[in-house]
């Protein structure tokens, strides 16, 4: 077992990590468009002499969403291979187990509101979920583990993944062989968060992230003049009744001991205040942990929407797209991460992490191999770094970069040596 004191982030590496994170933050790329990021990653692996391949994975939606639902939603998925994923291999001194370490690379369609020197240079695109931090940390991990490769047995597989924010880049990379040659025995990932500070991580076994589905309801009525509503079928009113009725699914049809969320974040209808529109569209998301609750909510949304609309002389068509599955942290791998982190950071800085209702496509990896995803603290209250991921003012305290590197290196080495 390599001593923990051998896992060091030198001042030079720390400076490089900060510079790299800022470069990636200033140059964000949306899902399936991460060409510059992939080029940067592959270039650094090449400099380190790390075996790697590019063009891995792509759009994974056709692999976990039904063709009929995609067509109904007007989605035409791209190819599942030939994309921007990068896979690196660090082979130890002798064959052994293989551990996969993953970082996602894509950004979000959000206009950044932070006034910082490293603000996004691309209008309407921002690393608001911390994937710039994830990618930077895994590059730092690669550098340290590559320097220790003559001192451990087994293989470390580096998974730089595109398209986490919706298109399912993880399952596309699985389809493209990321878990094969050599076969992966376990996987570890991290995700930044403002629930704790640099120097702390949060992790627990069991439920980690929820299944994340998308629903669209199109209501069709009869348009007309706002001054003569009796001659029309008002889709705005129908949509409002459907919206309220759907809230009773969780409150009255799902056990209080189960976790579920039904949220509609968008309603589109009409263009003038004196015209009753012909159509109204509701768009939302469903989050669940169990298959039974997921199936029930999918069925009841369509039934309630259709029933309410029919009772009000309208029609409702429901399109339901199943997204990422729920993710569970494997107890054995989680214990390895916890014990390694306790040795690196101190047991008092290894916190319990409550299950999240957010979705995460690392769940596709967790369905196939024992997996642990831990939370990395990036909060800095004094600097105003308190906004959660997906917020236009999300940011990260860069002191967390070295913490993430050391924790992931220690966890990987402990797994390989266990």
Automatic annotation (TrEMBL):
EC id: 3.5.1.32
Cofactor binding note: The Mn(2+) ion enhances activity.
Residues annotated for Mn(2+) binding in this entry: 129, 131, 165, 191, 390
All residue ranges annotated as the Peptidase M20 dimerisation domain in the record: 214-306
Gene Ontology BP, a term: diaminopimelate biosynthetic process
Keywords attached to this entry: Hydrolase, Manganese, Metal-binding
One Gene Ontology molecular-function label: metal ion binding
Cofactor field: Mn(2+)
One Pfam family linked to the record: M20_dimer
Official protein name in the record: Amidohydrolase
């Amino acid at each position: 077992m390599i001593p923990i004191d051998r896992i060091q982030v030198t001042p030079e590496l720390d400076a490089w990590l900060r510079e790299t994170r800022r470069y990636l933050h200033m140059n964000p790329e949306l899902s399936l468009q991460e060409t510059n990021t992939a080029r940067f990653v592959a270039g650094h692996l090449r400099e380190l002499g790390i075996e790697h391949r590019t063009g891995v994975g792509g759009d994974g939606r056709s692999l976990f969403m039904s063709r009929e639902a995609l067509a109904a939603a007007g989605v035409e998925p791209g190819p599942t291979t030939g994309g921007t994923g990068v896979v690196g291999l660090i082979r130890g001194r002798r064959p052994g187990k293989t551990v996969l370490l993953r970082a996602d690379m894509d950004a979000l369609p959000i206009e950044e509101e932070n006034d910082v020197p490293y603000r996004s240079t691309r209008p309407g695109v921002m690393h608001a979920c911390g994937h710039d931090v994830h990618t930077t940390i895994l590059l730092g991990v690669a550098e340290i583990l590559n320097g220790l490769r003559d001192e451990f047995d087994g293989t470390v597989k580096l998974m730089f993944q595109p398209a986490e924010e919706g298109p399912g880049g993880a399952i596309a990379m699985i389809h493209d062989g990321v878990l094969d040659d050599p076969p992966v025995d376990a996987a570890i990932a991290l995700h930044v968060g403002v629930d704790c500070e640099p120097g702390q991580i949060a992790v627990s076994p069991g439920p980690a992230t929820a299944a994340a589905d998308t629903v669209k309801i199109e209501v069709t009525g009869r348009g007309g003049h706002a001054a003569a509503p009796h001659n029309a079928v008002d889709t705005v009113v129908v949509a409002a009744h459907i919206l309220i009725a759907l809230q009773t699914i969780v409150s009255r049809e799902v056990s209080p001991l189960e976790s579920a969320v039904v949220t509609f974040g968008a309603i589109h209808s009409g263009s003038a205040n004196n015209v009753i529109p012909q159509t109204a569209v509701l768009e939302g998301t469903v989050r669940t942990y169990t298959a039974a609750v997921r199936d029930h909510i999918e069925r009841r949304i369509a039934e309630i929407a259709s029933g309410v609309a029919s009772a009000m002389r309208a029609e409702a068509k429901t399109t339901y797209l199943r997204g990422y599955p729920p993710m569970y942290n494997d107890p054995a791998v989680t214990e390895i991460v916890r014990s390694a982190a306790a040795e690196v950071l101190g047991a008092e800085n290894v916190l319990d992490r409550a299950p999240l209702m957010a979705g995460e496509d690392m769940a596709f990896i967790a369905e196939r191999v024992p997996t642990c995803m831990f939370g990395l603290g990036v909060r800095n209250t004094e600097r105003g770094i308190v906004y959660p991921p997906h917020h236009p003012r999300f940011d990260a305290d860069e002191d967390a970069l070295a913490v993430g590197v050391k924790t992931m290196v220690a966890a990987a080495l402990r797994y390989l040596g266990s």
